[in-house]
Structure prediction request, 350 residues.
Amino acid sequence: IGEWTLPGARFPLEGAQDADLGTNSLLTYHLTSNPSFSLALKESSEGRKQPELVLERALDREKQSSFELVLTAVDGGDPARSGTVQVRINVTDVNDNPPVFSKGVYEARVAENLPAGSLVLRVRATDADAGSNGRVSYSFSNVHGTISVLFSVDSDSGEVRTTGVLDFEEKNKYIFGLEAKDGGGLVSHCKVQIDITDENDNAPEITLLSVSSPVPEDAPIGTVVALLNVKDPDSGENGQVSCELSGEAPLSIVASSGGSYKVLVLAKALDREEAAFHELVLRASDGGDPARTGTARIRVTVLDANDNAPVFSQAEYTVRVPEDVPVGSVLVTVTATDGDEGLNGQVKYS
Prediction:
């Protein structure tokens, strides 16, 4: 801090992070008592409290060239837990201008699945000082680990680029802080907001929740044969799914009131004697361009009903026998067949 800095000047300090939730993560800060400095808390638009060091009286480097303070963060739990960090202030004779960002908030909108190394945006800060005191370097400011995995910032140019794969379905917005620091150690901050737009990178997924098989051949039209769930994690038209059946099965697909659930119902009467089973393919297509599709195969077996009477091979049998034929002699063999199966197709004579 330059010795000519006027009282009342504020200097952002790095805030603490607490992995707990609710009141257990509410942080308050305390600073070592010192007549030259006090602590103020600035609340961001996200509701986080940013500690700031406030200069209370003029500095004189020739009387005292440095200060050692301790910043303590205390959470709202019971019992409370705390963490500390040492704050060292060096008083200098030069560098009386901090870097100034051209914007307080930088915004960008990029598509998911950008190749690693793609340029997202560029931040810029200027410093009115000369020499090393006017050279600005850029870095992240108090960010979570996922940010530094997905993005990088060039310390010289201020370019923010991708370093990992962005996935809209995983997260569609990233907000983080950057800082600009000059050669004398003065720092300023800005916020970066990156909105991720959806690409049609997911095919519809079909999940069979239940299948009624076998189905009695005398089941009435409208009987529910299968219940399934069709979903697409993409958004907008990329996630709007339409379904169709292929094959000649006597089934139709109906959307339920929930939107993503579908039911397969009988569209016409079954006849096991014509087809003992039906195989069909359910195809789901999304509204993307080009569209992506998902398929599922369903096999429905038809259960026999006793809907066929035995049929004799002849309507009338005529037999001529001599009157002295022995008792027990076979006079004629009649045959009858039944199109049903199992017990329904076993024929007895009387």
